[in-house]
Specification:
mainly alpha, 18 helices, 3 domains, Growth Hormone, Chain: A
Length: 505
């Protein structure tokens, strides 16, 4: 009779053999250094920096792509959305595959796939091909993001964990802040293709560093299954949902195509939820949403990220088309948002430690709502209004800084101890859905308003400054509404983050 334990044990032995064959140990010359752990953290920081640069640099290139291809705004928007959608769909997939195939292997391959996608984006002959290659680039980014925290936590140990994660967060903040300026400089001096090619040396350096510096995977979970049904459903469900938001103007809300894709999105989301509830090892553990802290925090997080990246999407068009800024100057102005976010983030964390998450998260979103009202009032395309516009953008960054860290921390702390990994993965999905939905909704509403004001919502190229400002103000009102709802949801969470039990009934 077969031993019931022999099967899993044999599979585990095979997997360990594969890891030994495909994940070589770190080069001895580096592994013996006392500062070896910081070399590993630095390698992970390369991926974090590069990913955030790409997320913010792409927003600056959208006005150039609109003019380069004379394309509809909805089509140009997919250049930004495709990357984030691919990341959101594949993050939970690669998080699970990393436990099966090894974190070093997937992280290093993620660099190579990201570099390949970036190179192909630069060679894209048209907008459709560029969007396809952005999806490939996003899949590579998902390989990096799904493994980065696990690698840092494993190498740092309990004593250095907080400091190592802080260094990683700092690298991401620097990347997010530098992206608009780097993109503006490249667009002012070189072709738009260099916005993508600039990733090549950084990504190749990361791949080489990862292969020689990262330790092989150890202590991976044994016996975990893979949710194939969820993996097959999550990407088309998210794409259909964002397509409904992004293409509403071009298709028309009463058109058969819009109604059909809306129905498809609803069906796919229902099937995904059913699959996750039945799966033994779901990609997204939906039992987490039974806790109010997690459900309210996740929806508020989606709205916050929608506001933040909606601003990143909208303002380059306003600054370049309405205010007459060059791309580089517009990129520099846009840097104020992530810079002020980084300044305010430690304050938000400190307030959360002292008062709990409700006060800083609600205050942060109320600050964003007030800043949106200010931006609506002062934005008028005159040179005199540029300073107040910059102040309003900076205040939006402050509000986001007060919100994001306490909200993320509250979601993870509210999860049972045995589901903290799933809660961390949920944060990545929340961020991707929020970014995609915010950019798509901003694009669709901007086109609607331009159609009302100019008779054509094709793109922003033929709108005058007054018309573009009028359309942009409607989008800013939407941002303010998102922030206000997020503030209410933040107040709806528990007064304190209660320690979660080990399981959810």
């Amino acid at each position: 009779m077969n031993d019931p334990v022999a099967g899993p044990a044999s599979l585990a032995a095979v997997r360990d053999a594969i890891l030994r064959a495909h994940e070589p140990p770190a080069a001895r010359v580096f592994a013996d250094w006392k500062s070896y752990r910081w070399l590993v953290v630095g390698t992970v920081c390369i991926g974090g920096f590069m990913g955030q640069v790409d997320a913010s640099i792409t927003q600056v290139v959208l006005p150039r792509l609109e003019a380069e291809f004379n394309a509809p705004l909805s089509a140009v928007t997919w250049v930004a959305v495709a990357y984030v959608l691919a990341m959101g769909a594949f993050l939970p997939i690669f998080g699970r595959l990393a436990d099966m195939l090894g974190r070093k292997l997937l992280y290093t391959f993620g660099f190579l796939l990201f570099v390949l996608g970036s190179a192909l984006c630069g060679f894209a002959p048209n907008l459709g091909v560029l969007i396809v290659f952005r999806l490939l680039q996003g899949i590579g980014g998902a390989m990096l993001a799904a493994n980065s925290v696990a690698i840092v936590v494993a190498i740092a140990g309990r004593e250095w964990r907080g400091r190592a994660l802080g260094v990683q967060s700092a690298a991401q903040a620097i990347g997010l802040s530098a992206g608009p300026a780097i993109g503006g400089l490249l667009l002012e001096t070189l072709d738009w293709r260099w916005v993508f090619w600039v990733n090549l040396p950084v990504g190749l350096a990361g791949a080489v560093a990862g292969w020689f510096l990262l330790p092989p995977s150890r202590d991976l979970p044994r016996g975990a299954g893979f949710d194939w049904t969820g993996a097959l459903l999550i990407a088309p469900a998210l794409i259909a949902l964002v397509a409904v938001l992004n293409e509403a103007h071009d298709w028309g809300v009463t058109s058969p195509l819009f109604l059909g894709v809306s129905l498809l999105a609803a069906v796919l989301l229902v099937l995904f939820v059913r699959a996750e509830r039945r799966a033994a090892d779901p990609l997204v553990d939906l039992t987490l949403f039974r806790r109010r802290e997690i459900s309210c925090g996740s929806i508020a997080g989606i709205l916050a990220y929608a506001t933040l990246f909606g601003v990143f999407f909208l303002m380059p068009f306003v600054l370049v088309r309405a205010y007459g800024d060059g791309i580089f100057v517009a990129g520099l102005r846009l840097c104020i948002v992530p810079v002020m976010l980084a300044v305010a983030a430690p304050i938000g964390g400190a307030l959360s430690d002292k008062f709990g998450p409700r006060i800083p998260t609600a205050a942060g979103m109320l600050v964003c709502a007030a800043a949106s009202a200010m931006l609506y009032a002062v934005m008028d395309s005159t040179p005199e209004s540029l300073l107040p516009v910059m102040i309003a953008l900076g205040i939006i960054g402050i509000g986001q800084g007060l919100f994001i860290s306490p909200n993320n921390s509250a979601i993870v702390s509210a999860a049972p101890k045995n589901l903290t990994g799933e809660a961390s993965g949920l944060l990545n999905v929340v961020r991707s859905v929020g970014v995609s939905a915010g950019v798509a909704a901003a694009s669709s509403l901007l086109m609607w308003q331009l159609a009302e004001l100019t008779g054509s919502g094709h793109n922003t190229l033929h709108a005058n400054a007054h018309e573009l400002i009028g359309a942009a103000r409607a989008v800013v009102v939407m941002f303010g509404a998102f922030a206000a709802v997020a503030a209410v949801l933040s107040l709806a969470r528990s007064a304190e983050s209660r320690p979660a039990k080990d399981t959810l009934a």
